[in-house]
Amino acid sequence: MPFTHMNTGYEPSDMKVMETSFGRFYESPTKKGKWYPSVTTVTGHAKQEFFAKWRQKEENQKVLKYCQERGNLLHETIENYLNNNNEYVDSLSLVEKRHFIQVKESLDKINNIRALEVPLWSDVLGLAGRVDCIAEFDGKLSVIDFKGSTKPKKESWIRNYFEQATCYSIMWKERTGERIDQIVVIVSCDDGTNQLFVKDCREYVPSLKKTIENYWEDILKNQDLFSSHEILEQTKRELQERGVLNGIDS
Description:
Number of helices: 9
Radius of gyration: 19 Å
Mean pLDDT: 85
Number of strands: 8
Low-confidence stretches: 244-250
Strand order of the largest sheet: 4-5-6-7-8
């Protein structure tokens, strides 16, 4: 049965991207000259040091390449499937689409799709990024995120996934006026496991706020590095003025 796509009136805007030594930044389409860190940069910041050291080890390079290729293929396959492009899915070998097959049962609970791989941003949070999917899941409007993993995840390991999806629920409300309370994370694991996490995003708003504050606190410890990017310095000042960075000295 084909998936239904809804016309919400939301017209995604391309966002300029800037890579920095402290993460990816996007320029706000509604506030030109204001650059916001990406959702994944901020919500994954607490684990950044660990993964930076992990990536430096030569023996981990093959694993890193495999994980990137697995993630790209999984996202591309899911996007084509949800766009009713079954010819693309059928063209893949069983090996290529095994992760997709694992999560297909969960994907079939999706319908009335509002957005797939579209840019979102928040001038309130000072964040930006690209959301995997906004649609109804089991009949309830949700932010849906797709992940690949080497092994099954413990819920305690992936708070950043839930905070990431919570960001997109806030952004969607800001951009369209449509409220989303449910977040869904679907994980396809190398051992054949399909994990499904369904949460109320309101549970993660307090920890998200703290995560944003912690990111800026860490970044601002290195004033010379940050001040070398004048446009980011301007963004920092505005966020402080709006109280997003309460308690952080200029």
